[in-house]
Write a structure and sequence with these properties.
The structure is a homodimer. By secondary structure, chain A is of the alpha/beta class. Chain A contains 22 helices and 19 strands. Chains A, B: Its cofactor is FAD.
Chain lengths: 682, 682
């Protein structure tokens, strides 16, 4: 379009331009050193999925996540475990899941052994362990499934149960024949080969499951030839598998050649190398047995002389594995690494740290530990009450059809399930009864003894008998660093009978990268309202109800065990935000709220823990037990929110005023019974 | 329970207590003067509904709102209007609705006159005016409905249409017989009496509508007796009416007696007195005619000598009405007052202000003007683009099934309807064509002329011909006080061809009661990300795309009219929060976002306004028109968000860098055509 445009008056001189020019020149010089191709079409965040929390991106399958990591050249690792034999072993394994999750594995998988009732309901079954990893330990989880000794119908049944639990990934194997059966005979109405199993899963479940298959870089021991084995691998992939994990191998070149041979016949999906850390001399023999491979002579030469020095062998194994994987990474032949952990931790963690794959600092997409179940992928807000008990929360809400996203909402929240068995093994304390008695008191003489235990826990000091109190029934771990910010104040009040079980300081626009209070994506600002939750006696509650109107910026809610006493200045159904953050490029995230209805569901759990975890340590009818029961039946659970987060928290003033009010009442009262039920006065 | 509790060691002395005691004593002394009965059961917010925005409380019917005001003794007012005769009258009436809404009426109502096609589709029909008041002016609205000359079927049809539009309240009347009909004969299949109409509405629509009925404190002119008329009123109420509005009256005692007589026969619903301000001598005669009442002699004695001095009469009327109502309020006989405005403003507003009923300062529950349609009661988040055009937004989204609450969400937003007719009368400019030409230029010679108009608008100064520019096609009002904060910077850039149509400053935790940027409930803190939206030429856009990567904290989106050019660094579907607030006792409110999909729907409207409102002022083929068309087809619409709201906004640096980059390019380029299309360079 050619329009004659009359020259207008010179634009006003802009004060900024003379300075802006040299600065801009410098910027532009710098930029020439950067990537010059800037694509301004919509930024494809899909390439950086792993940076974005799932409540923002929506659920992405393991297949998509692997693809994303490949595209951004961000190496990953995965961990394989086997189901333990005992319940104690299961408890330990879950604790191991929690610890190893901190390193940021892309997924974990759980093996399947038909002889061990892998699809059953026991704490030690493959299905239960896989479900716990997914739901209670927040790990993307893959379940192995074998064809051996199962009919199509049985297999479908197990897969349906896996689907119900929320599992989205299956490693499809033929499996090992039962012990002693030399010639494997597939069952009637069963499968001959893993490729049949893959086809069956696709037929019955469509795209619901991501399917992985196994490969043997040196060829399967029972294969007719290496080339035939690769052809068979292609069949498995063509039947519908998404990616491949290999058996272990000893030389980088083995894997490199194998990958090239796969690509040559048209196998194009991701191929992940498997490694098995050498833990000891015996484990080397274990490796040989499991893999049916011959250990290369140079490795045997090094290891044999050290057969009494397991630590040296382990260190050698760590070094050797790192060199191997590093060679694959440098050759750009592997997108990540899959570790056969044999349920052990030390060597695996050391290898991953040396390779630089272990997350430097644990990332917190949200202040609370997220579950990995795809049904919960949009979940980004929870009541604060379960901050120390996320597994209990997941358990009690597992039946919900949908999970709150964005806001908790003001309608009645759906019902919380009950914790059927307080010894639910997911929540079993890692401490023995003896250890708990040592920490909490072999015997209790008074309420003050109970208060002293809380005091010792909060301060991290020893109790009367010199034992460090590292947990309480409401928190199986030591105080978080965030709560430590409040330690001094908490300690004093606990000693005086304000038994705190949950708290957070106020935060006014801290960086989302703050090491103590930060969470979510970088570049944001996080906020918190000061919060305190505690058990205390009736006299204190009476005092509180009198002085709280002097603190209109406080929202409070007070309940007793039965719920017959219910005091609050909150709107019946309105939740109060207590943690939120503002980030670049997104809406406001508000991950934690205080909600009157959920508090009622929580109090049953909180009151119950007195008896279930502490009271039951003592004989029935003992004084110690009576003291715990007395507290359960006569104390109240109180939560306080200080809405004025930019100001210093006034919660301590509230508590001081509470005690001061009681003192005033005593000064007024002339009668004071000798046998006061509660001597929580000064 | 009597448990022997051993006395524990004295609690640690608390450093706070000695100081706390005297302070607490003082507090408690003060408190004794306050209401001693503090009910700590859940605070019943229902008694204070009018303080809480609807997106928090949910929709409450007019009946509930009236009850709530009665319970809290918070007097209210309502306004009655009649449908205008001309389209121009309708435009003026809507502007009057907007202005009078600032005073905080509890509801307004619109009369129904069968002769005027009240249920039709025209701009002037009762139904259209009532719908506009509800949807476009944010007023709780009641529609009159009469029985005269309509069959049951016709009445039901009208009520259904009212329901579709969102109206929830009906004033059920018999109505006046058609002019000249001495004896009223109801139609076949019609209604005799208002009580029949009330019954019919309840039968056909259940509780959907709140129903009001009229009463005559001095008895209906056609009633057999005063007592019979009250009996008949009771029939109407028993048939299902929720409250009563009375005809006007002249003496307080008239109304007081009437209310007592109603209560004596068991009429217990709210009774609201109606008043009609005297505007002039003629209006007094109008009153007599409408009400069929005799004006009391003392009033006639005062007014008659003043019959040539309308202002004196109006002042007398204001005084007289205020005394009347005040007497009713002091006697606690009226919950509020209903004003027959006769579509006029001055006397009504004066009376309500004198009575202290007119809102002191306009409250902003949200930064944007809310609609009153119950279907939108949960709506609390909108894209920022329609900040100056809320009516257009309501129009284009009226068909949505549900409205965003809490979050905008990341799924595809539903489709926006088109603005069928840019002259849609709801959006018709209040200025005439002559006024617009005077402000925007009788003729345009260059793009700079257009830029100068923007500059004059932003600075509030006169244009070339000495005319103050008080509006632009995208904003029918003068700059808001909030935008005035940015005036200097905006002015300079507009002059240079950055044609801003929307902006907001960054705000970091200002009080929610701040007079300029505050909104929502008191005691909260509000936040904003700095935002800028403007039209500009291609050369500037090219420069922007080069320098924006130097400002990673900026989210941007750039579109041309057709959408063929679409540049952004936002995730395709993810909205960005630009306004939010944290308040006591609630979740985070996030009322304004920037959303890529909505921006595409908005740009059609924004680009269209060039031609529809400005271009069309000029003859076809004129240079002025061509310039506007050139801009429409060649300029781009840009929006910028500065995510780092705690820091000073860098948006001006972005624009300076844009111009600096262009200058650099020119210095590099040796060829420069004489006839540059765009001389927006320095």
């Amino acid at each position: 379009a050619s329009i004659m445009v009359k020259e207008g008056p010179a634009a006003l001189p802009s004060p900024g331009t003379p300075t802006a020019l040299p600065i801009l020149k410098e910027f532009l010089n710098q930029r020439e050193h950067l990537n010059s191709e800037s694509d301004h079409s919509h930024a494809d965040d899909d390439a950086h999925l792993y940076n974005m929390p799932e409540y923002l991106t929506g659920y992405h399958s393991l297949s998509e996540k692997i693809q994303s990591r490949i595209e951004s050249n961000d190496k990953f690792f995965s961990l394989e475990f086997f189901p333990p034999r005992t319940k104690g072993g299961a408890v330990n394994l879950l604790a191991r899941f929690d610890r190893m999750r901190e390193g940021g594995p892309l997924f974990c998988d759980v093996t399947w052994h038909p002889a061990g009732n892998p699809g059953g309901d026991t704490e030690t079954s493959s299905l239960t362990i896989a479900g716990a990893a997914l739901n209670y330990c927040g790990l993307e989880t893959m379940l192995h499934m074998t064809c051996c000794n199962m009919t199509k119908t049985e297999i479908t049944k197990h897969l349906k149960r896996a689907k119900d639990i929320g599992i989205r990934n299956i490693l499809a194997l033929r499996g090992d024949p039962p012990h002693g059966a030399e010639d494997w005979v597939p069952p009637e109405d069963g499968f001959n080969y893993a490729s049949d199993l893959v086809r069956h899963i696709r037929k019955e479940f469509g795209d619901y499951f991501v399917i992985c298959v196994a490969a043997y870089p040196m060829g399967h021991p029972e294969a007719t030839s290496y080339e035939d084995d690769i052809k068979y691998l292609k069949e498995k992939v063509d039947a519908g598998a998404n990616f491949i994990i290999t058996q272990l191998f000893f030389k980088a070149q083995t894997f490199i050649k194998f990958v090239r041979d796969c690509r040559a016949v048209g196998i194009n999906c991701p191929i992940i190398p498997g490694i098995m850390p050498i833990q000891s001399y015996d484990s080397l023999r274990h490796i040989v047995k499991l893999s049916k491979l011959d250990v290369p002579q140079d490795i045997m030469d090094f290891v044999a002389p050290l057969k009494d020095n397991d630590e040296a062998i382990r260190n050698y194994g760590i070094h050797q594995t790192c060199m191997l994987i590093k060679e694959l990474f440098d050759a750009e032949m592997a997108p990540g690494v899959h570790v056969y952990t044999l349920n052990r931790e030390v060597a695996t963690t050391a290898i991953l740290k040396q390779l630089g794959l272990w997350a430097a600092a644990p990332r917190r997409p949200l202040p609370w530990k997220m579950a990995a179940n795809h049904k919960r992928s949009g979940e980004d807000v929870r009541p604060i009450f379960w901050a120390s008990r996320p597994k209990a929360y997941v358990y009690r809400t597992q039946h919900w059809d949908e999970f709150p996203n964005g806001r908790w909402g003001s309608s009645e929240s759906p019902a919380f399930g009950e914790l059927k068995d307080y010894y639910l093994f997911y929540l079993t304390s890692k401490s023995s009864k003896e250890q708990l008695l040592a920490m909490w008191g072999e015997s209790l003489e008074s309420e003050q003894d109970v208060w002293d235990v809380f005091h010792a826990y909060v301060t991290g000091t020893s109790n009367k008998t010199g034992k460090k109190v590292t947990k309480v029934p409401w928190n199986d771990d030591e105080l978080s660093s965030e709560t430590s910010l409040l330690k001094e104040n908490l300690a004093d009040f606990n000693k005086r009978g304000v038994l705190t079980i949950n708290s957070q300081p106020n935060v006014n626009g801290a960086s989302s990268e703050d090491p103590v209070v930060g969470w979510g994506m970088p570049g944001g600002y996080v906020y918190q309202k000061a919060y305190l939750e505690f058990f205390t006696c009736r006299e204190n509650v009476d005092a509180l109800l009198n002085i709280l109107p002097l603190f209109p910026r406080i929202n409070y809610h007070i309940l007793n065990k039965s719920g017959s006493a219910d005091f609050s200045n909150c709107h019946k159904h309105r939740p109060v935000a207590v943690t939120w953050g503002a980030f670049p490029g997104t809406e406001i995230i508000q991950p934690t709220i205080v909600d009157p209805l959920s508090f009622k569901a929580w109090k049953d759990e909180a009151f119950g823990l007195w008896e279930e975890q502490w009271g039951k340590l003592y004989p029935e009818e003992s004084r110690s037990r009576e003291i715990i029961q007395y507290i359960t039946n006569n104390y109240y659970l109180v939560n306080l929110v200080d809405n004025d987060y930019p100001k210093d928290s006034c919660l301590w003033d509230v508590l001081e005023s509470m005690f001061a009010w009681r003192k005033l009442q005593e000064e007024k009262s002339e009668d004071q019974e000798e046998n006061n039920l509660c001597i929580c006065t000064q």
